[in-house]
Amino acid sequence: MLPRAGLLVNTTSLGMKGQPPLAVDVAQLPAGATVADLIYVPLETELLKAARMRGLQTADGLGMLLHQAAPAFEAFFGVRPQVSNELRRAVEAVRVRGLQVTVSLGVAGLKPGEDLQQLLSRADGALYASKRGGRNRSTLAA
What we know:
It is a single chain. Strand 2, helix 1 and strand 3 (about 55-60) form a beta-alpha-beta unit. The chain has a three-stranded parallel β-sheet, covered by helices on one side. The protein has a two-stranded parallel sheet with strand order 4-5. It has three domains: about 1-60, Rossmann fold; about 60-100, no CATH class; about 100-140, no CATH class. By secondary structure, the chain is of the alpha/beta class. It has helices at about 45-55, 60-75, 85-95, 115-135; strands at about 5-10, 35, 55-60, 105, 140.
């Protein structure tokens, strides 16, 4: 399957600090493939390093983190931050000093006849169930 893949995305915790690496041989990917890793601790995972060494396009998980954080920041402070290269550089600078971030995820798939608001409500419920379960959790909505 990998020789035909144009995009490989790691959405697991494999490769995260304290977790085993993701065992994927990026040498099997075609030359024009892109590799994305949603992990942001460490920002450059072994998967991304291997992909870069092959000359593949890569994307780390910091963008996802920033876009997920924007609505929470707005809820607390009443202002939605602009996710920009400047914000990314600022967060990267803080991370260098040792800040560690955790994430909880709520995941929901669209059910037949369900509208967007219902989907988001179920995903939000799953998110808060994850947070009650501890750090670095994910929950699939019923």
